[in-house]
Amino acid sequence: MTKKALVFIANGSEEIETVTTIDVLRRAEIDVDVVSIEKDGHDAVKCSRNVRVLPDKSLDDAKTNQYDCVVIPGGNDGSKAMAAHAEVGQILTKHYENGKIVAAICAGPRALLSHKIGVNHKHTITCYPGVRKEFTDGEPYRLDTPDHVVCHSKHTEKDTEEKEYHIVTSQGPATTMAFALKLIELLKGKDEATKVKDGLLA
Q: Which of the four pLDDT bands, split at 50, 70 and 90, describes residue 135?
């Protein structure tokens, strides 16, 4: 079955993190929906360096869909908009609680904090260095060491059946390739991630 991912975009999203993630996931034949959280959800958004990105869908189009992975790119203004958007929080919460991958890069983890994603599971995260001050190490997330550019944190619960909860985070524009390849590894396996990595000469 084809894996599906949602990548949120907003005015002020970081374009390298946005476009590279979309591109690399699609190279692995993952079906990516680029979803705008803006009021005019079918219009192009203006990213942080004035690159314009045209969404595939509006939030209304996508909010009832089920994805295997939901991604929050960075960018100061874009990530703040996502952190403040109630429907973004609802989508993140739904997918996290259903055991899907919730991923955020650069300033994107501030949306995880704002919407309280996985706060009871003591996940370890990373983020852009300048954003680390917005987090208190250990409460509700542990902060990974800066030399780990991508952090995959998994929480496992065993009740009547085992259930896994996943958060993947990364630090910034230059770490986006590693971030996207880790998502491919989790969604489609190491062989597919290696195949895409080799094709990119990464």
A: very high
